[in-house]
Amino acid sequence: MSWVALGQGTQMAGSNIFMVYTDSSGLNVTLSPRLGTGERQPQSDTAAQVTLLGGSGVSNDVMTANVRCKYYPKTQVFEEEENGNRG
Length: 87
Fold this sequence. Notes:
The protein has 87 residues and is mainly beta. Helices cover 5% and strands 46% of the residues. It is built from one helix and nine strands. The longest helix has 4 residues, at 79-82. Residues 76-87 have low confidence and may be disordered.
């Protein structure tokens, strides 16, 4: 496997997409937040505040991505709101 994506939304256009793919060595993964634009290749979303955490990588042909999403502009979701605190 060289890539995987998880999308959030009711359709491709305007959806939040977390794309994860292997690096050139095949041992590590790269996280790329994208914004769905319909039936076209999703564009990079540079305003999203996402972090790839420790423990992410490729081992025994299994790709693991531990992701922290602090803020995703499309949905106006803040980490504090997800934890029950408004800030």
